[in-house]
Amino acid sequence: MTTPPPIAMLAELTHRCPLSCPYCSNPVALHGKETELATETWADAFVQAADLGVLQLHLSGGEPASRPDLVDLTRAAHEAGLYTNLITSGIGLTPKRLDALEAAGLDHIQLSLQGTTPELADRIGGYKGGFERKMMVAEEIRKRGLPLTLNAVMHRHNLDDLDRTIDMAVELGARRLEVACVQFHGWATLNRAALLPTREQTEATKRKVAEAEARLRGTLAFDFVPPDYYADYPKACMGGWGTAGLNISPDGKVLPCHAAETIPHLTFDNIRDTPLRDIWYDSPAFNAYRGTDFLPDTCQSCDRVEVDFGGCRCQALAIAGDAAATDPVCRRSPDHGRVDRLLSEAMAEADSATFTYRVIPRP
Amino acid sequence: MSLALAPTDRPRLPRGVRLAQDRVRGGMVLLAPEKAIALDAIGEAILTRVTGDATFAEIVSDLADTYSAPRDQIESDVQAFLQSLRARVFLTVVK
Ligand code: SF4
Ligand code: SF4
Known about the structure:
A: 14 helices; B: alpha+beta; Arc Repressor Mutant, subunit A; three-stranded antiparallel β-sheet; 5 strands; 20% strand; binds iron/sulfur cluster
């Protein structure tokens, strides 16, 4: 297989965030401020990414607005010719800062939504007053006509509010709504029992999304990420390992996906030391699970192997104990029973489960 | 809402959706929120005519003339392509 150039890059500018969502996809071992890359290192990484073929850049975190140089970074990305998307909770985006981001060439904002009411949203995000500030930011975005996607992270505690979530997306002038059911990586794995939706909620969600999608076609586009554990087949994680996208963590490690550091036998090169092109094409970590040759017979002999590439490597490791195994979410995986067990354990504990909130790193 | 374009509709790319040269892979891409679509020659011919000023009928006529192709065929191709973009809100319409 010849390796194609990457299309998208996720720049995790910082792990710092005023919120502490219990499903945060950041690793459980968070990096502190003192390890973060300098402005110039990021700016240079953006130029390297564009030269390599990256078209879309996602400025993410943590909360990217926690970086004082966010406007400079946005300008650098824009000048490198990248389509620049800001993935944010909105906290830290003042009207003045939004003006500056707009002037710096920001193309699009993806605003996260923790819940549809202040009570729920602030409880999930663990940040009092967060919902109200987010709504003010959303209004400022709408006034400016900045293209907006609302990213509603959904789980047991807010899936029943889906109708209201959809209405809010329309009211806020979003063009796109991501109904993203929590994926169990990072902090979410510590909160399975508290977050896993029920099968009934999952079925209702699928119906509601399909209905709203048809009703709002041309007004609001949907992207639906169903909960993994109830699916028959896994997702094509990252569009295939080392195939479409890459991540840079706050301290400069270049990763095939944001959870890749959970695979302990892989070593990841750092953008401070190694050119991005060499990392993408030649590093052992990026080549480890490229293509489908490494997969077991279950996948090799399956008609879906070019559809999902055997699913997620991090999930295979976390649940089956082998990063090269068939993603256990798959009904055809010999380890699928473990997913069913996780589900029934989570359901048994659900009512008494409390959140383990993400802890903010303090240097 | 119906996604079909009327002859007098003026399609346009909304803010946050734009055409760009893909200098690594060659050809043109349509860049949109969290999506990049590689365009073939037909897609490129259509979208470079989507200016916000030209009506749907004018775009179809221009393409039919340029490529000396039957107008009906062109019209249904353009209609299908623009509707698919409109469904994702990658394209809007000025009446
Ligand atoms: S998921 Fe929550 S805690 Fe994690 S970065 Fe996003 S807003 Fe912050
Ligand atoms: S067996 Fe492998 S290739 Fe087939 S659906 Fe399951 S994960 Fe995908």
